[in-house]
Design goal:
This protein is mainly alpha-helical and 325 residues long. It has three domains: 100 residues, Tetratricopeptide repeat domain (Serine Threonine Protein Phosphatase 5, Tetratricopeptide repeat); 118 residues, Serine Threonine Protein Phosphatase 5, Tetratricopeptide repeat, CATH 1.25.40.10; 80 residues, Tetratricopeptide repeat domain (Serine Threonine Protein Phosphatase 5, Tetratricopeptide repeat, Alpha Horseshoe), CATH 1.25.40. It is 69% helix and 0% strand. It is built from 17 helices and no strands. Helix 4 packs antiparallel against helix 5, helix 5 packs parallel to helix 7 and helix 7 packs antiparallel against helix 8. It starts with 33 loop residues before the first helix and ends in a 10-residue tail after the last helix. The N terminus is likely disordered.
Length: 325
């Protein structure tokens, strides 16, 4: 499933400038009225995020205030929508912000993230280009654009952006992880595993992600037992995580342990019924076991959720019965 293809992990650039975005507008913090100030409060819980959303909406509905202030409110609400993973509404809010201030860095970064996470990477790149020109010292922006290039299978461009991020922040585990992901998709497994090793050494909150990705890469390289050890370690950190259950299933699938792979995919789908990778993997395992009807049903259901899933899984080395070995 990986750092990018999963979409989960798809890497989210995050709130690049947050309240500091005000510095790029004519509005000063002390001039913002109470409603807009509440719209900008950093939220640390769902309840606070909901209140922030309501405050932004209330300010917008007033249809008053300077264009700069309204742009700020639209952008802030757009970031709430990104957090909620409601990307079409987020994009609409960022579009509104940019119609009022076409060079608003906060809105450009937000729209780039929304495009990236809604599988519109080709539309994310121009926004990343513009905001990177404004903030050339932001590692996170290079990581975001690198992930967009990875999603488009332009791995060398992605790696170049991760290298730029690492030149600015040498211990950035996210850049290390996503760079390794690109190397794995290029078939450079040994170099990718070394990259994951380095990322794991400095990772804090992403240790399970790095382990899950390294598990998949080792499985692609035929190191099945080592892959399973990494997946087990990832699941110890985040028990029941659908992505890492998929990764363990993938390792078992690549090791032709089809019954065990199906059990992993069942667990992954119990945690996330829309995990297209797990559906497809289970379908492949069932086909190899001669369970033709249920295997085809799983593969068809996976394709409904994620068109192009067969190409994605084939790129990982997954083969159907009858494919060239």
């Amino acid at each position: 499933m990986g750092a990018v293809m999963g979409g989960v992990t798809g890497t989210v650039v995050g709130c690049i400038v947050l309240i500091a975005a005000l510095a790029g507008t004519s509005a000063k913090a002390q001039d913002i009225d109470a409603t807009l100030r509440a719209c900008l409060v950093r939220a640390t819980s769902k309840e606070m995020m909901d209140r922030r959303f309501e405050s932004c909406s209330a300010f917008i509905e007033q249809a008053s205030g300077s264009p700069a202030k309204r742009a700020i409110a639209f952008a802030s609400r757009g970031w709430v929508q990104v957090t909620r993973r409601d990307y079409p509404k987020a994009i609409a809010d960022f579009d509104s912000a940019l119609s009022l201030n076409s060079n608003f860095d906060w809105a450009l970064a937000g729209r780039a993230v929304a495009f990236l996470n809604s599988r519109q990477s080709e539309r994310a790149i121009p926004d990343f280009d513009r905001v990177i020109a404004m903030h050339p010292s932001s590692p996170q922006l290079y990581i975001g654009r690198g992930d967009a290039y990875n999603n488009l299978k332009q791995y060398d461009r992605g790696i170049a952006d991760f290298d730029r991020a690492l030149a600015l922040d040498p211990n950035n585990d996210e850049a290390m992880n996503d760079r390794a992901w690109a190397l794995a998709r290029k078939g450079q497994y040994a170099e990718a595993i070394q990259g994951y090793d380095a990322a794991f050494m400095v990772a804090t909150g992403r240790r399970a992600l790095v382990l899950g990705n390294r598990c998949e890469t080792k499985a692609m390289a035929g190191q099945i037992d080592a892959a399973l050890a990494d997946c087990e370690a990832a699941l110890e950190i985040e028990p029941g995580n659908s992505s890492y259950l998929f990764s363990r299933g993938f390792a078992n699938l690549m090791g032709e342990r089809f019954v065990t792979a199906i059990a992993d995919y069942d667990a992954a789908l119990a945690a996330d019924p829309k995990n297209a990778f797990a559906l497809y993997g289970r379908g492949v395992a069932r086909l190899w076991l001669g369970q033709s009807a249920s295997g085809r049903d799983d593969i068809a259901a996976a394709a409904q959720i994620r068109p192009g899933i067969r190409e994605d899984m084939s790129a990982l080395g997954v083969k159907l019965p009858g494919d060239p070995r």
